[in-house]
Amino acid sequence: MSTQANVTLHDIARIAGVGLGTASRALRNAPGVAPATRDRVLAVAEELSYVVSPQASSLRLGSTGRIAVVVPHLDRWFFGAMLAGIESVLRTAELDTLLYPVGDLHDRRVFFKRLPARRKVDSVVIIAFPLEPSEQRRLELMGVHIVAAGGQSVDYPFVCIDDKIAGRQAMGHLIYLGHRRIGMLEAIDPDQPGLDSPRSAAYYASLKDADIPVDPGLVESNDWGGEHGAESMAKLLSLREPPTAVYAHSDEVALGAIRTLRRAGLRVPEDISVIGIDDHPLAALTDLTTVRQPVHEQGARAADIVLNLLQGAEVDQAVTMPTQLVIRRSTAPPAR
Amino acid sequence: MSTQANVTLHDIARIAGVGLGTASRALRNAPGVAPATRDRVLAVAEELSYVVSPQASSLRLGSTGRIAVVVPHLDRWFFGAMLAGIESVLRTAELDTLLYPVGDLHDRRVFFKRLPARRKVDSVVIIAFPLEPSEQRRLELMGVHIVAAGGQSVDYPFVCIDDKIAGRQAMGHLIYLGHRRIGMLEAIDPDQPGLDSPRSAAYYASLKDADIPVDPGLVESNDWGGEHGAESMAKLLSLREPPTAVYAHSDEVALGAIRTLRRAGLRVPEDISVIGIDDHPLAALTDLTTVRQPVHEQGARAADIVLNLLQGAEVDQAVTMPTQLVIRRSTAPPAR
Fold first, then answer.
1. How far apart are CA B3 and CA A20, in angstroms?
2. How far is CA A265 from CA A104, A171, A259, A260, B18, in A?
3. Fewest CB atoms less than 10 Å from the CB: which of A260, B31, B90, B175?
4. What is the mean pLDDT of chain B?
5. Could you give the C-alpha distances from A312 to A145, A305, A307, A308, B2, in angstroms and in order?
6. Is the ipTM beyond the 0.85 threshold?
7. Chain B touched by A105 (CB under 8 Å)
8. How buried is residue B194: exposed, middle or buried, by Cβ count under 10 Å (0-12/13-18/19+)?
């Protein structure tokens, strides 16, 4: 029988005949407690089925034993995989993961408004969105560490990929195959419309390097997600001269584009090549050529930084993980 | 020093020399407490690093304000969508979601072994796996409520779909189209090999109803996941007489099968029809015919049950949500 739920530190302190602070220090093996006293406290705790270790470890690493992970979209693979990576490391340190999904700007405002009232965590990991200065200030006032996974910051440590390099890997592949009329399905977060996209910058830089003039009609901007990719692809197909290849900002956008192409009776890659970014698990299943980013690993590295921060150790401020071209069956040289 | 993990409302009440109710009201700033008393309670709470507001709201619903969600695979869509549904409801009650991924049996054993030591939550929501009796007993001893999302139980409330009906909807569609040689890509959790699959039962029942004899060579069993679907499909293609249609236990398995068919130069649905179950977001993108299950909604309903349990209200013990056939472009009448 475990009655730990009802046993308090106070009970233990009282029965062991010590103060609360002494009981607490003894339980977490902190200095300043005589060995005999510590033994007595631990014996009482054991007798009452007050289990030391989880509390003890949480006291050792951070004060709450909990890390908040703030994540925009739990039901998208990228965020789930990032979260899985974070959690896999936090678990090894017996830290708990408190989940805060913030699907849109409204959720996010509510979260940050309430946050200062809830010093429930020692660190906050932000998955893939930039904090506003006021949001950041609130976290700092609470004394919690901030780490970004899948996004950059000048103010706190982050783990990400180099999106411009990823984009150039994708564009470089299409240009190498001989494509010169290349469309871009640009994905833009509607909550951050002004944000410069390094994946877009890669498109323009790659064209410039290859002396291919920019045709603004070949660029379609839309929200992230497959349905938007499908719509945008239809727009490119309505051009007098559609592209021979399409560079999509994500695999989901690319898969939407491929659906439009198939429905139009076009073959991928014989008629039009399509490349994405991510290496979504279904990219392998759909034979999509893409640029792989290590998502689970980015999450795990971000969590490593959290552990180091809690231990007061030095941390890397900026970790950039490599991406790589994965050639499958959705790209080929242009027809003719 | 923060010992919040160990300090209880009882400690604070006792040290401040007030009753539990008064301490609780003072901490959550409710009316009916003299200002001097409130100040004393808050001072004690602060001294003990007892954080006021989160507990205050949690005192209203449950004692910890936290709900554990135990989830096998964070990076698979089904689990992420279920989690998002659960969290969307818990958030409205200002309950926090503590995440416990248990990727395999080992993780799961560790989780349940440690659990009794951590009365950190008021309820546990189990996503889509059956608890063993010993696991269930541990939770009950802790006095935490158990709710299953996406799976059934005779012992605690659950929300799920009727997998046998879902399977019959898929099979019925193929049989209606005129297929009689129908393969099954059966997905089995390697950690629960003995478990009867209602999706498989649906296959046999549908064949029987249509007077189609069972050909065991048309059934391939494998783990969940697209790569396994791809492998199993290759086995079906090695038959002297391959099926004209394939019923896959999930969309991911179906997509793997379609990749194998495409690589073999076969057309879907002209040469072979494929149907899945789930309506994974990428099913729409890949024009896969499937049987839709409401995943986010199952999670939300499970969380509703949690809220009712915490309020001591009556709850539905068994909620079964409807599924429906979604016809896209991966199924058609057999050739010839």
1. 9
2. 37, 25, 10, 9, 77
3. B31
4. 87
5. 11, 10, 9, 6, 17
6. no
7. no
8. exposed
